Amino acid sequence: MQIRLEALEKSYKTDSSLIKAVQSISLDIPSNTVFGIIGKSGAGKSTLVRLISLLEKPDSGSVYYGGERVDNLEGMDLITKRRGIGMIFQNFNLFSSRTAAGNIAYPLEICGIQKSVIHERVKELLALVGLTDRGNAPVSTLSGGQKQRVAIARALANNPGILFCDEATSALDPQTTRSILYLLREIQKKMNLTIVMITHQMEVVRDACEYVAVLDDGKVCEQGRVTDIFTHPQSPVTKDFLSHISLSLSEDAPCPDGIVRWSQDGGHYTLRFLGDKTGEPILSRASRICSVDFNIRAGGIQHVSTRDIGSLIVDIEGSQNGIEKALAYLKEEGVIVEDREGNIL
Amino acid sequence: MSSIQIIVNLVGTAALQTLIMVFASTVFSLILGFPLGILLCTADPLTGISPKPVLHQALTRIVNVLRSFPFIILMILLFPLSRVLIGTSIGTSAAILPLSIAAAPFVARIIETALKEVDTGVVQAARSMGSTNMQIIIKVLLPEALPSLVSGITLTIINLIGYSAMAGAIGGGGLGDLAIRYGYQRFRTDIMIASVIIILLLVEIIQFTGSKISSALQKSR
């Protein structure tokens, strides 16, 4: 379902001042996409999602779902409209008094759906999120990733047209984040959902979203296709987000140790330079002295507490004798040399 | 009749009176206090699911006034009401009314506290799914708060055992009354000790059972 926001405003009174959490935000969220809204803490993104998801009313402005104005609904109309959207949260917000299946059944129960129908639907949903055998598990026995899967299943129970994800992966580790984002994208395609993803992690935008709006100080400072924003960021806030992006979430270029690998070919040796050695031109000296050539395949720097460890994945070309001499020279210079299997030579 | 038999008879009758008073007033104070506690939680102007500042303020005042009354005064004040509702202002059944009225605001606070402990995020999630306020109360707040509710009710019962000792003042009988009339006023230390032991056992059994139920509920989630 397409979502349109028109000049949304929302402010809060505190004892001393008026906080303008959302200031004249207008956005078009196309149907059937994953739309990211990124911002730092206090940028107003939580308020914005509460406005779009009908949990709060804006001071002024309007929200449209598929052309229908929804921000002014009251009573049962509002409740019915809420039943047509799904929402997941950073802290999962599952009912601890219910099992995984019981949680998924809740939104169906409140709509007065028959028990037998609920039972079947819950089974389908558990299968959809890959938790077929955990239906009877109490929520407290589930891992973070499993909890979020249950929350996703619960949010999707009523076949919503829109799914809101409020920092849905912020409490999860990178691997789990990746699997949850993957699941969300799969579901988006399968169910023709519009997903609105609120996050402070640019990695999440990169890995899951098609469009993105960057929020700062209650306003949208930049929006567009994720590919455009990544290649031509305009606002300083966006640039700042992009400069802090960690590479470790990408699926296409897995680099568990902070190393960028352009290709998986070659790379017979891994050289590790400890902090104080990184300033010296050891490689080119080795190359000259032993008359070998280094072909650098990948490289990166890891920060390990107070020390930096530089890593280079290389191939060494030259005579057998030269290669052995070069390896000996590197070791002499304090470089740790590993072979492809990670054994230290 | 041997003196042991007399003691058993006296203590037995008194224990039964205490049990009747405590059981009945627990039931009535829950009937009165439970909705009050739910209202206090849901009408809260800041955290409630349906904020009603005026109602909340009014309920808070009533609860506080009732809670600050000394129980013995409350009993006397409620004489006329007892006569209307129960037909008499003395005796075991007459004591049930002031006990219930005294415990109701306590129950209300305990229910309110237990319900407010429920994670606001969970309530928000229920709201975002399109729950009505009634559904939030019945399907979310109460089940989520169940372990604390059980602990709170246990506390109420034990408090009522204490209050019921004062029911002797209006001829309500019971173990506390027995301990005062026989043990203190007639120097029957043996009866005093027997009464106190039975009260102690009652409190221990109720606390043990309450804690067991509460932790079993907690463990199963």
Structure described in brief:
The complex is a heterodimer of chains A (345) and B (221). By secondary structure, chain A is α/β, with parallel strands linked by helices.
Strand content of chain B: under 5%
Give the CATH class of chain B: Mainly Alpha
Main sheet of chain A?
A: 6 strands, mixed
Q: What's the Cα radius of gyration of chain B?
A: 20 Å
Q: CATH superfamily membership of chain B, which one? A: MetI-like
| Uncertain parts of chain B | none
Tell me the distance between the termini of chain A.
59 Å
Helix/strand structural class of chain B: mainly alpha
Roughly what percent helix of chain A?
25-40%
Largest interface: A-B, 32 and 20 residues
Number of strands of chain A: 15
Provide mean pLDDT of chain B, rounded. 90
Apparent shape of chain B: elongated
The number of strands of chain B is 0
- Can you count the helices of chain B? 9
Count of the domains of chain B: 1
What would the average pLDDT of chain A be, to the nearest integer? 85
Q: Give me the secondary-structure category of chain A.
A: alpha/beta
Walk me through the topology:
The complex is a heterodimer of chains A (345) and B (221).
Chain A: E1 3-13, E2 18-29, E3 34-39, H1 45-52, E4 60-65, E5 68-69, H2 75-82, E6 85-89, H3 100-109, H4 115-128, H5 144-156, E7 162-166, H6 174-191, E8 194-199, H7 202-208, E9 211-216, E10 219-225, H8 226-231, H9 236-243, E11 260-261, E12 269-274, H10 282-290, E13 293-304, E14 307-317, H11 320-332, E15 336-338
Parallel strand pairs in A: 3-8, 3-9, 6-7, 7-8
Antiparallel strand pairs in A: 1-2, 1-4, 4-5, 9-10, 11-13, 12-14, 12-15, 13-14
Chain B: H1 3-42, H2 53-68, H3 71-77, H4 79-86, H5 92-116, H6 120-128, H7 133-164, H8 175-184, H9 189-219
Helix pairs in contact in B: 1-5, 1-7, 1-8, 1-9, 2-5, 4-5, 5-7, 6-7, 7-9, 8-9
